[in-house]
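Q: My labmate handed me this sequence with no annotations at all. I'd like to see what the chain might look like in three dimensions before we decide whether it's worth expressing. Could you predict it?
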Amino acid sequence: MAIVFVGIDLAKNVFAVHGVDELGKPALVRPHVAQAKLLELIISLAPYLTGMEACSGAHHFAREFQKSATSCD
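A: Here is what I predict for the chain of 73 residues:
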């Protein structure tokens, strides 16, 4: 099944990424994603809804995700 929702726990250097399918079952579990690899991981997946905590880091990564998504179209 396809990933429909991804939650990202933002930190300074290493992030946790958890994706679930339509039934709410884990479809992607990455407890340790380096900051340099986060964008690469996110753009490798099909479109889905993303949830992140509200902080300046979330705004930065949202802009980066959006730039990558528009450049892939």
